[in-house]
Design a protein that fits this description.
8 helices, 25% strand, alpha/beta, 7-stranded mixed β-sheet, 5-stranded parallel β-sheet, binds flavin-adenine dinucleotide, FAD/NAD(P)-binding domain, 2 domains
């Protein structure tokens, strides 16, 4: 049933970009520069994933490697923080006069190349082509253990200040866990890390890993390696260490065990075929055009890697925009 808030764009657009992340914005502005009409739809805020990152998070990339559409990202310091990047992408979106539909979740896609209807929670948009740039940050990898849904258990880490003088368990030992454990400790929390593997991941950035190893060595951060979590209760985490089961006190738990693309969106709602021969289950797409096995639908950015969430990031994913804009223009102009 149609409500007052429900709308339909009946005049067919050339393209709809799903996802207002850095790569979705890059795609939209390149498509627009080809003289095509485009809107960007996002279920949340502009650059929603970055909004969800920890406050003051420092990017590992230097600013010029995060630039899109040739817009300079001037910085006095070496590496941008989350707030610098939020500012930058917002300014680019405004400068390019992108047509944004924020807080509007895409829930389906009907039709075929040249004649699609994008279904959103607020309406329907007719379009010739679609770009899926939905990233991977919306679905956490769950541990599937009792107590994981308790209110003091988080899969996203924002900032440490509420946790001074509290017992905090951090699960995992990759970049996000390492950074969170260090920040929490420095803000006065008593941190215990629970790590499935034998050591702090080798992939932890070279300027963070020694800091964490030294804090563990001096006993400021407690760490259990080769350890699994069996359950979480309102006040404890039950673990199995190589020396047997232990119960550790926990006022807060950060299970920073990574994220995965939203496969219900990709497969059930957008009907994108996946590459079953690749264990990372990425969507099938042509690497020269980024068009998927569903003609007229393109993929861009981190979503292209499927479960291999570090295969594509902003630095390399932003270049998908030109490939897609060129391929789309060729197809739409020929049609
Ligand atoms: C902590 C952290 C630090 C990082 N640091 C760096 C770095 O220094 N350099 C670098 O290159 N990369 C970095 N990355 C990786 C990079 O930030 C991400 O890969 C980047 O956000 C990817 O951009 P994207 O546009 O592909 O996807 P995203 O930025 O994730 O954008 C996807 C968008 O799609 C929207 N969306 C999802 N589902 C729907 C739906 N159903 N309907 C509508 N909209 C939807 C989301 O709300 C989101 O806004 C970092 C990642 C993390 C987690």
């Amino acid at each position: 049933m149609l409500t007052d808030n429900y709308y339909m764009i009946l005049e067919k657009l050339d393209a709809v970009v799903i996802g207002a992340g850095p790569v979705g914005l890059a795609c939209a502005l390149e498509i627009q520069r080809q003289g095509l009409t485009v809107v960007v739809v996002d279920k949340g805020a502009l650059v929603n994933s970055l909004v969800g990152y920890p406050t003051q998070m420092e990017f590992f990339s230097t600013p010029e490697l995060l630039e899109i559409g040739g817009h300079p990202f001037p910085m006095a310091s070496y590496k941008p923080h989350r707030e610098d990047a939020l500012d930058y992408y917002q300014r680019v979106a405004v400068a390019e006069k992108l047509d944004l539909r924020l807080y509007e979740r895409v829930i389906g896609l009907r039709g075929q190349a040249g004649d699609f209807v994008v279904e959103t929670a607020k309406g329907e948009i007719a379009t010739r082509a679609v770009v899926v740039a939905t990233g991977f940050f919306d679905v956490p990898n769950l541990m599937n253990i009792p107590g994981e849904g308790l209110p003091h258990v988080n899969h996203y880490y924002k900032e440490p200040y509420a946790h001074a003088d509290r017992e905090v368990v951090v699960v995992g030992a990759k970049n996000s866990s390492a950074k969170a454990a260090l920040a929490l400790t420095r803000a006065g929390a008593r941190v215990t890390m629970v790590v499935r593997g034998p050591e702090v991941a080798e992939t932890v950035k070279y300027w963070i890993r020694p800091d964490l190893l030294n804090r563990i060595k001096e006993g400021r951060i407690k760490a259990y390696f080769n350890t699994t979590i069996d359950a979480i209760t309102p006040h404890s985490v039950e673990i199995t260490t190589p020396n047997g089961p232990i119960s550790i006190k926990a006022d807060y738990v950060y299970a920073l065990t990574g994220y995965r693309p939203d496969y219900s969106l990709l497969v059930d709602m957008l009907a994108l075929p996946l590459n079953e021969n690749d264990p990372a289950l990425p969507p099938i797409f042509d690497v020269t055009t980024h068009e998927t096995a569903r003609p007229g639908v393109y993929v861009a950015g981190t979503v292209c890697g499927g479960l291999a969430t570090s295969r594509w990031f902003i630095e390399n994913g932003r270049h998908h925009a030109q490939l897609i804009a060129t391929a789309m223009t060729d197809t739409l102009v020929k049609a």
